[in-house]
Here is the input.
Amino acid sequence: MRILSKKNLAEVAKVLKSGELVCSPTDTLFGILGNALSKKVVNRLYSIKKRDPEKPLIVLFDSVEQLEEFGIIIPVNYSTGFKKLYPAPITAILPLSEKSPFREIFKRNNLAVRIPDDEFLRQLIRETFPLFAPSANPQGKTPAKSCEECRRYFEGQINYCIEGKSKEVPSTIVDLTGKKPLLVREGAVRFEEILEVLSETKA
Here is the structure.
């Protein structure tokens, strides 16, 4: 497994653009990054992780504007507060427009999204594309915490890893597809704090 450096963003971007998967620290757990717009790369990720095909992936974006560009709908009742949430270790499940490319890729009408609280990741997304980022482990195993642990799990399957440490705390997941926010998973940010921000409206 070849070790990459955050200092060489262009090299990391080139590897991802070639269709490779990359283990990497994130603003939550150590994850596996890849092109979320490529069905081939997505399928490879599911195969390598032995992941249940019904289990959706979290996709990282660099901004609220990019979310909207790719047909992710921010419901009007959350729009003001939503923009104030990010960047943060908060994953939001949002509806997809009819024209969103993610409908075809994931065969879903919603998508779990996050704008990570990590400047390197946001820059990397700007240089490439939206990136999926599930935890770096085969399904059912403990998430890796380093490139060495990634190598033990994925030697010969994933060829690259970015040096660094993650926060080792998963994101909080909230479902915003209905009239009220629903907590799906407790994580790095308390649900009460999220509700407080989402309830903010324009003056």
